Fold each of these.
Amino acid sequence: RKEVEQDPGPFNVPEGATVAFNCTYSNSASQSFFWYRQDCRKEPKLLMSVYSSGNEDGRFTAQLNRASQYISLLIRDSKLSDSATYLCAVKYYGSGTYKYIFGTGTRLKVLA
Amino acid sequence: GAVVSQHPSRVICKSGTSVKIECRSLDFQATTMFWYRQFPKKSLMLMATSNEGSKATYEQGVEKDKFLINHASLTLSTLTVTSAHPEDSSFYICSAKRAGHSNQPQHFGDGTRLSIL
């Protein structure tokens, strides 16, 4: 089983739609969680950190479910500019150092 | 603005050449930096963790003699791909985290697209 798993998609949604992505992780000792956005041939850019209580930033809402070991990202009122690959990242301490492991990413295409 | 600078952004060279990639944290100290590799339409694969003043920690399956990492200062880590071959062609990305901020996210460099002919 992969350490961090995501549905690769693509998710094709119309403008204005609400779309949700999940990301599961296998290491129960994982400490911190993040969502990144990556545009084609570019580096990942932090979208938001994920807190235990859930957090919202404009149209984006992130949630953490430690019991089921997954995090989610909800995008409301999708824009064309939201088209990108969304990567989840999980941080845990192992082998004497902190490690950040990324999922494979979920591709989102918002259609006009 | 960018907080992590990676250089060069693009390298095209002949097989057998060694290529050095630099990763700098611009306005913060980073005791730890990370090197990732990404193939087209694939996720970031952690190659190694670069530790300032000590040896890098390599992930399973990554050849440490092939991918030399040096983290000589709190703001600079380098990755050298030695005797590169076409199969080493990939997108290499570094990231850094502010020292003393264990729960803060990483900041990524712009990446280096390496093409070996």
Amino acid sequence: KAGVTQTPRYLIKTRGQQVTLSCSPISGHRSVSWYQQTPGQGLQFLFEYFSETQRNKGNFPGRFSGRQFSNSRSEMNVSTLELGDSALYLCASSVGNNQPQHFGDGTRLSIL
Amino acid sequence: SQELEQSPQSLIVQEGKNLTINCTSSKTLYGLYWYKQKYGEGLIFLMMLQKGGEEKSHEKITAKLDEKKQQSSLHITASQPSHAGIYLCGVQGGSEKLVFGKGTKLTVNP
């Protein structure tokens, strides 16, 4: 069974630009969550989608948004990029109902 | 909100030694996850503990949940270089939202 796939693996952007990250969950998983990991703050929850609906949202500004498609694939978008947005963005999928989340290898975003 | 504190923050051991990593919660623990992360990569699910007193093992890694102490421990027996990485504990902070500790960085010297 294929794992969680995130694309691209690496991305370099400049301040003010916007970026879209993609996540393909494990087949059969309907819940997709996104996390931001930085050396200072550690792993922080961004949002979670289930059946195309956002069910949960972390404490991030509105510049961070996401969506989920009918095939459970998900994208997250960050607009007006800031230097502080440089981080490893991780996607995780699960079957839901508080079952273990399985993570992709992440997208490392660097803002210049 | 629930917070998790991991100790130690980093650990260097000689290959073959046993070690323990602790995860202490600021609130009652109803369940806990352990993950391992290699630098710059994703998290690998190790174990999920769902009730007080529960103990699970996988290969040379054993995790326990002490509900009364609001604590979980991860024990590695006869460590190997392949055990090196960052170990993270996490709890459900709401529907499908995981709250993580800061992690414990483990180095195993051959």
